[in-house]
Amino acid sequence: MFGGRKAAAYKAQHPRYPTPSAPFFSSSFLHIAASRDSLYTVLSAYTFTSSIMSATYQRLAQISKQVTPGKSGSSAILEKNPDDIVVTCALRTAITKGGKGGFKDTAAADLLVGAFKALIERSKIDPSLVEDIAVGSVLPPGGGATEFRAAALAAGFPETSAVKALNRQCSSGLQAIVDVANAIKAGVIDVGIGAGVESMSSQYGPGAVTEFSELLENHMEAANCKVPMGILSEDMAKDLKISRKDQDVFAASSYQKAIKAQEAGLFNEEIAPLTVKFVDPKTQEEKTITVNRDDGVRPGITPESLSKIRPAFAADGSIHAGNSSQISDGAAAVLLMKRSTAEKLGQKIIGKYVTASVVGVKPLLMGQGPWKAIPVALEKAGISKGDVDIYEINEAFASQALWCTKELGLPFEKVNPKGGAIAFGHPLGCTGSRQVSTLLTELKRTNKKIGVTSMCIGTGMGMAAVWVAE
C-alpha cells in the first residue's frame, strides 16, 4: 500500500511492525508512528486503501446487479429497450413469374426504385436521414453495385445515402438486413435500409454460373460447389428417402395456403403496387400495367395434380417444377434504426431484429442449411423452438424444406402459414427481405410475437434470424 523511501524508513525505525496494508488505527499505532513523516505516510495509506475499497464495493454492487437472475428466454427478447434494433417499415413488390409474369420486362434496378419509393412514402422517413442502404442480389453483372446506387438516387435518396450490393446467394436479402442492423448496433450509422432484389427474367440462365479454374475443379469439395441445386436436391431426396408423394403433399399445401391467403387479401398490406411497362407476348404491344398480386399463385393444386408432372432432373426422380420454387422477379426493403431513434423521429415500430446465424454445411447437402442455422439462432436469442410462433423457411425445394421441418420437430402449422416459394416464387436476392415483411405482417395479424426466417444457401450454407413483432 505504501513503499519507496518512506516505507524503508518506517521499517528501519519500527522493525517489529509490518508495513500497513489495511486501515487499522489505534492510539498505540499513532503513538508508534509519532514522526511527522510516518504519520503522513500512514494517513495517505489509509486514504488510498479506503478509496480502493470503496471502488471495489461499488464494482461488486454493479456485478451483483448483472448476475442477479432476471428475465430470460422469450420474456427477455420481448422486453423493450432503447438500443433495440427495430423495423419501422417492411414491404415488397408483388412476386411475378420469370419470363412471363408482370415484371418480365422490368429491370432489377427499376424494381428496386419502386420498393424504395414505396418505403419512403409509407414510412414518411426523411430520405436524408438514411445513411446506408445494403442490397442483396445474386445475378446482376458487377454485383449490381452501380445500378443499385443509381436506383437509390432515382428513388429520392440524396447523394449522402451510401449504397452497397452484396451476394450470399439465396440469403442475400436477409444478409443485407443483418449487415445494416449490425452497423446500427455498432454505432456506424443511425438509420439504414436492408433490401433485396432479383430479375430472374433478364439475368437467370447458364451464364449465371462462372467456369471454375483448374485448381477448383481438381479439389473435390470445391468442385461440389457448382453442382446444380436441382441435382443436389434430387440426390438428397434419394439418400434420405424423402418420397415424391410426401414432397407433392408439402408442395400442394404451400399452393393451397397461398391461394387462401391471397383470396383473403392477406398479402395486400405487405405488397407495394408497382406500375411498369409490359410487352404482351401475343401481340407484342407495349402496355402500362399495375402489378399488385403474386401471379405465380395458382388455385386447384393438389397432390394428385402434381403427381402427373414429369421429374426434372432424373427419369426416376421425385423433383419437378411443381414441387420446387418458381423462377421469379421481385424486390423488398426493410427500414431499420434503434428504438430510441424511432421514438425520436415518430416512426411507428412494427417489429425488432433480435439476432441471426449463418452456418456452413457440405456443398452437396446445401438443402440442410436451415436445419443447422435455426438452432444456432435460437440459442443466440436464448429461446427454444416452442417459443417461436411462426417460421418462414424458404421452400427452395419441397424435399429440403420438408426434411428440415421434420428434423427440427416443428409443427407444420407454424411453418409458412401463407405458403412459400413453391407457391409464389423465389427471386433469389429478394427472398430474405421478402420473408421479413411476410413474417411481421402475419405476426401482427394473428396477434403473435416471435418469428424466425431462414433459408438454405447454394454451395452449402444456411442462415436464420429471430424477429419480434410489435
Automatic annotation (TrEMBL):
Highest taxon of the lineage: Eukaryota
One Gene Ontology MF term: acetyl-CoA C-acyltransferase activity
Protein name: acetyl-CoA C-acyltransferase
Catalyses which reaction(s): an acyl-CoA + acetyl-CoA = a 3-oxoacyl-CoA + CoA
Gene3D superfamilies, A to Z: 3.40.47.10
Thiolase N-terminal domain span: 85-340
Keyword tags: Acyltransferase, Fatty acid metabolism, Lipid metabolism, Peroxisome, Potassium, Transferase, Transit peptide
Family: Belongs to the thiolase-like superfamily. Thiolase family.
Lineage start: Eukaryota, Fungi, Dikarya, Ascomycota, Pezizomycotina
Organism: Trichophyton verrucosum (strain HKI 0517)
